[in-house]
Design goal:
311 residues; alpha/beta; 2 domains; six-stranded mixed beta sheet; globular; disordered N terminus
């Protein structure tokens, strides 16, 4: 499956179901292959890795290389450059081209921020997702050996960049906060991160939830229908309005980051994350599989969970 924008394909990863339970800690599968300017790695084996206390401490001493897509006009490139220059303060950083990633990845004092196509080992639909990944460099025989620090789903693989690129500033801020959190308490790495971040649900009181209509189930596709379940302020807006809220750093605004197949008729995971536009805080984190009464959307049951949390 090719991205609708023209750029070099990202690295492909394979994850098993454990990856969903501990989403912030990556497990990837890559065969030992030589790197080329344009490549997509096939999926053959699997390996699980969780960052150790020593990995996390080492990361803070690295220089982070931000890997750009090969297309110089890529919207992702513009947005990730802007986000890193504005918000990245956890390590030194430098932008590099995708074609240089292979050689640079051997740097023991380097860490790497890059996009990767991800599929799940037991997923018969062969659905693929685009993740933003952060890994430690090292002189390893393959990219499979790179130690992963954290990652986050951006979109279903092949979705237009404009569905997620405007959120990169908020996502970058969250990733840094998460790394600082697990560095201070390494024991959290092996815990259920869903539980930790969903403890913030009640904190959504006093904030307005901004949603895009096409990302909502038809049963909750209007403010009136949502209001019958969820008592706090909600506005249904377009993506440009959410982009404005993020740029303004609105502390009272929370928006939905939904990752799903976007109209493709297939069974796939739908990630649903509510993020603060100003504080980059996660207020809700869940997923479901499409099929039957569970479309590629934020559901009435999600609003019910939020309503119960604020009672």
């Amino acid at each position: 499956m090719k991205n609708t924008r023209s750029y070099s394909p990202p690295i492909e990863l394979m994850l098993n179901d454990h990856r969903i339970i501990d989403l912030m800690c990556t497990m990837k599968s890559i065969p030992t292959l030589g790197l080329a300017v344009f490549f997509t790695l096939s999926l053959q084996a699997q390996r699980e890795y969780l960052p150790t206390k020593e990995d996390l401490q080492h990361f803070h001493r690295t220089k982070t290389y931000v890997v750009l897509h090969d297309n110089p006009l890529s919207e992702y490139n513009f947005e990730i450059k802007d986000a890193i220059e504005k918000y990245w303060d956890i390590t030194e950083f430098e932008f590099i081209q995708f074609r240089d990633f292979g050689d640079k990845s051997r740097d023991l004092n380097g860490s790497f921020l890059y996009t990767a196509a991800v599929s799940f080992e037991k997923d018969r639909s062969n659905a693929r997702y685009l993740f933003l990944c952060l890994s430690l460099g090292g002189d390893y025989p393959s990219l499979d050996e790179m130690k992963d620090i954290t990652n986050l789903p951006l979109s279903y693989y092949g979705v237009d960049e404009d569905h997620y690129s405007y959120k990169l500033g908020t996502i970058i801020r969250f990733m840094q906060d998460h790394i600082r959190l697990i560095t201070a308490d390494p024991g959290m790495v092996s815990q259920n991160v869903f539980k930790h971040y969903n403890e913030n649900m009640a904190d959504i009181r006093g904030k307005t939830l901004y949603l895009v209509e096409e990302e909502l189930d038809k049963d909750v596709s209007t403010e009136a229908r949502i209001g019958a379940i969820y008592p706090l302020p909600v506005q249904i807006v377009d993506r440009d309005r959410i982009r404005e809220l993020i740029m303004e750093g609105d502390e009272q605004a929370v928006f939905l980051h939904k990752v799903g197949p976007e109209g493709r008729q297939m069974e796939a995971r739908v990630y649903k994350i509510l993020i603060g536009a100003g504080d980059s805080k996660f207020y809700y984190f869940d997923f479901h599989k499409t099929g039957g009464k569970h479309p590629d959307a934020f559901l009435a049951s999600d609003f019910t969970k939020l309503a119960k949390a604020i009672q």
